[in-house]
# Entry
Amino acid sequence: MKNEELKNRRVIVVGGSSGIGLKLSEELIAVGSEVVIASRSVEKLMAAKRQLDNKVTTYELDARDEQAVIRFFFEVGEIDHVVAAIKPDQVTGNFVTMPSSEVRKAFEAKYWGQCYVARHCLPYLSKEGSILLTSGIASSRGYKGYSGIAAINGAIESLVKALAVELAPIRVNAVSPGFIERFQNDTERYDALKLFGIRPPLDRMGTHKEVSAAYLFLLQNQYTSGMTLPIDGGELCA
Ligand SMILES: NC(=O)c1ccc[n+]([C@@H]2O[C@H](COP(=O)([O-])OP(=O)(O)OC[C@H]3O[C@@H](n4cnc5c(N)ncnc54)[C@H](OP(=O)(O)O)[C@@H]3O)[C@@H](O)[C@H]2O)c1
# Structure
């Protein structure tokens, strides 16, 4: 795929300072996009900037703070696409014993953070542009200890469908990662997952590159909207 659609496009990646968002930023730069990454930690932003050879603009932003999100988009100005790949600090825990406050905090970051991004980018977003959020396969399959993140991901996927209608012709989509490596050959984590009976048909975790490819597809394809694309090695069929 040539990714010509993304050449010279201005793309914001909130949550672009590590993991999937960082890999996506690298891929976007490689196809000629102008990339802005935002997240909370200045240290992570600086490290990301170094890793990306200074080819990105970075912004310190806590997306849980709605006023900060409003100011961020005002400062950034005109944009073509917005991606949010925010991961909450605490995501798993026993449904009965996990403090509700922890689940609320996770909602604040992953659901509300991405919701604020989708809402306040609108005055600056190109009419041919798109909003691309991140959910996760816990929305679609039960896993012990994942009830909080399941609810958050489900809320994001429902929001995507509603916004695809309400905001058209702006396209709104989501990527739903399955179990993804934190680093190359993250076998220790996969071995731990197997102990919980998690074994996708492709019998390995996905890579950041494979997940990034789904974001690139949804950013470019002009006839996708309201879609959540799982990248899960077949896990949802198992
Ligand atoms: N990796 C997986 O196996 C997996 C599976 C299912 C779903 N997902 C989803 O995929 C997305 C990316 O995950 P990842 O594994 O790449 O996570 P990651 O490496 O921890 O990256 C998360 C990014 O979100 C930023 N962030 C966190 N809270 C923020 C906030 N309040 N405001 C702004 N930025 C914030 C982080 O930077 P700062 O700390 O600097 O803020 C970081 O850049 C998440 O939505 C995650 O839930 C991942």
Q: What stands out?
A: The mean pLDDT is 96. The chain has seven helices and seven strands.
